[in-house]
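Kindly inspect this chain:
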Amino acid sequence: MSFVEKPPYFGCPNGKIGLLSSMFTEPQYRRKGIAKELLSRVVNEAREYGCGVIQITASDMGVKLYTSKASRISANA
């Protein structure tokens, strides 16, 4: 996760944005809730920093994880 600040806009009034990319789980550890837990921790860190938005760059494999949490991320981050 990296953090950037941009001029405020309607969807992010304070301009603080979290950028998430390159999250990866080794094949032998997949389907054990590790990515879900990591994502929760990242969202909490972004919330603590004051991010109004988290922008995610996802692989095809990661889309399901991120879209299942998308409303939670946009609502709480």
In short: The chain has one domain: 2-76. The radius of gyration is 13 Å. Confidence is low (pLDDT under 50) at residues 71-77. Strands lie at 2-5, 16-20, 53-56.
